[in-house]
Write a structure and sequence with these properties.
Elements: H1 3-37, H2 47-76, H3 86-109, H4 113-131, H5 152-168, H6 170-175, H7 177-207, H8 214-217
The structure holds protoporphyrin IX containing FE (HEM) (2 copies).
Length: about 240
């Protein structure tokens, strides 16, 4: 494996090692928090606060691994010296990345409602702006096309938005029943999307060749599912 290949597996590896175990714990504690609120006194009183603490790390973790995936897609698409738009575009993208990361940190610390809304939207906007770059491969951008619904990118953007919503609306979820209901509904959808990400992510991993194989494998016709025959080397 070359450096670019290690960079490409950083996102899936972090998803498998950190994010999915965290998802399991957050869901379990969320269910416990609900049962306890509904009157089961045998459950630990800390379920709610532990759910919230780990939920914050889950939200931030998802944004971070998505940013890693997007940066990796952009920088490994071509040698950096051949980046379309050159240095000015490179600096612009770097600024968006920096702004998105600062918004995430600000969202983590913000308490005022307006600031939480602003930073959650800014962070999501940053993810979408980086994702919109031509180097980031997407199956389809048309919701009427069945491929759109199998896209690892679009489900990733959607679940990132749902995580940012939970992180931003924490005080409301804690205090108001209506918000708690919206939170549970949103995160049932998030759980489905996380499952889909596990499937489409491993599919993509299977489809992406190692750096040294690309020049040969990209000659294949992926729609017709055929590759040109390899030129046979004659050994003396
Ligand atoms: C897969 C992700 C998640 C699921 C399935 C989930 C589910 C739940 C459930 C079932 C409850 C209990 C609702 C009730 O009492 O009726 C809850 C409460 C709550 N959740 Fe989540 N949640 C998730 C992620 C998050 C995240 C990322 C945060 C953000 C930090 C968060 C913050 C909260 C808060 C503040 C409460 C109220 C806790 C309490 O009553 O002490 N959750 N969640
Ligand atoms: C927490 C759940 C996950 C989210 C939110 C997520 C999100 C994303 C996003 C937004 C991208 C960039 C767009 C793209 O290139 O498709 C991406 C790329 C990628 N992800 Fe994930 N992902 C998740 C889990 C996984 C898992 C579990 C795997 C595999 C084990 C995986 C494998 C990949 C691969 C291989 C790419 C690069 C695809 C390419 O360049 O065509 N992801 N992911």
């Amino acid at each position: 494996m070359q450096g670019v290949d290690w960079l490409a597996i950083l996102h899936p590896a972090l998803a498998v090692v950190l994010i999915y175990p965290l998802i399991g714990m957050v869901i379990r504690l969320g269910i416990q928090a609900r049962h306890r609120r509904l009157g089961d006194r045998k459950l630990p009183a800390t379920s709610g606060s532990e759910h919230t603490d780990l939920g914050r790390w889950l939200s931030a973790g998802v944004v971070i691994i998505v940013l890693i995936a997007l940066v990796s897609a952009i920088v490994t698409h071509q040698p950096l010296s051949e980046l379309s738009g050159g240095l000015p575009r490179g600096l612009q993208l770097l600024l968006v990345l920096l702004g998105t990361s600062i918004s995430l940190v600000a969202l983590w610390h913000a308490t005022a409602k307006a600031l939480r809304l602003l930073f959650a939207l800014l962070t999501w906007l940053g993810v979408i702006s980086l994702g919109a770059q031509s180097e980031v491969w997407r199956l389809s951008d048309n919701p009427l096309d069945p491929q759109f619904w199998q896209s690892h990118y679009w489900a990733g953007v959607a679940v990132t938005g749902l995580m940012l919503f939970s992180l931003g609306a924490r005080p409301e979820i804690l205090r108001q029943l209506g918000w708690r209901r919206i939170h549970v509904a949103a995160n049932l959808l998030a759980a489905v999307l996380f499952t889909i990400q596990g499937i489409t992510g491993t599919r993509d991993l299977l489809e992406i060749p190692l750096g040294w194989q690309k020049s040969t494998l990209y000659q294949c016709d992926s729609k017709g599912m055929v590759c040109p025959p390899l030129s046979s080397k004659t050994t003396p």
